[in-house]
Amino acid sequence: MDELHESTPDVPYPNMWMVPQWRTCELLAARHAELGGTIDFGVAVTGLDERQDGVRVTLSNGEVVTAPYVVGADGGRSTVRQALDIGFAGENYETQTMLIADVRLTGLSRDAWHIWPGPDGRGQRLGLCPLPGTDVWQLTAPLAGSVAEAVADAAEVTEVGWTSRFRANMRMAERYRVGRVFLAGDAAHVHSPAGGQGLNTGIQDAYNLGWKLAAGDDALLDTYEAERLPVAAAVLGISSRLHARRTEDAEEAMRRDDPVLRQLSLHYRGGPLSAEHRREPGSVRAGDRAPDAPCHDAAGVPVRVFDLLRGPHWTLLAFDVPAPALGDAIRTFSIVRPGAAAPGVIVDTDGHAHRAYDVSAPCYVLVRPDNYLGCVTGNPADLNTYLR
Hints:
Alpha-Beta Plaits; 3 domains; alpha+beta; 8-stranded mixed sheet; 6-stranded antiparallel sheet; FAD/NAD(P)-binding domain; Glutaredoxin
């Protein structure tokens, strides 16, 4: 599907990672609990009513909750989206269905992804993918009506965990916001799983929206749709093309080596929150994802740029200039070349940070909480203007 890619100083994690959906849910739920959150399982939204003081949400257990904001992250059949009467443009492919299941089985090596061809010798009849770090397999079977039917003469299934019937839909919400209510993830866009774009796009929706909700600024919240809707439209096109390859039995149908699929090149250049003030910016500019780089502090202790960015805060990286004070909410670091070290600065020991950010002249790089470059400038006055 794709060759392994070597890590680099600016991209330490270049390869796609297969993680079972249930394991992803476990990790997110555990972190949510650490932060004091709770999850009510088996409770549905049955009604929404926006009022001046917030949104009243009626739940299936009879409870009524009033919240400042509501995020509909409730999947492709989103109750929230339907309650808002937001159009969901696109197509349904009702004849293109697939049985999906998590199973335990015996008789197959876990060193490979096993695929059995269909009656025509080309299309897929059955796929069994070993999910790394577990003893579970993901089963995909376009033609089967049951797990037993799918694995007949292929393997012995000892346990069936989770099953679903996938239907190919390619759709996107016409709006991501109505007043105090927002859409994210599959509630805002559904597409083929080809290329593994869905989860990554949904998490980026949440990361983009989360820090803006925390700020609570109405104009800032409007930028969520402006930034994320075009990304979803592009992803929809990519996944649709990959899906078409498979249904057309193209020679390279299973290839996933297009670097766009890694989503590391997504950007918000030209968007409402991207302010590039340099006359001659380099290859990395406002709106781009912040790259990594290995450095050292003044005492010689290794530190990576990703370490500086980790957390829900704004970060100012001041290249070859002192970092101005911008308030307690913004963490500031001066990144200097070797020989210019001083207490409290980050030393770009091997020049990786300057190369990763393509910096040739002193400048300030203001990084948003979601690790995209907001403002890049040589004039510190631009930073205050941007933040206001």
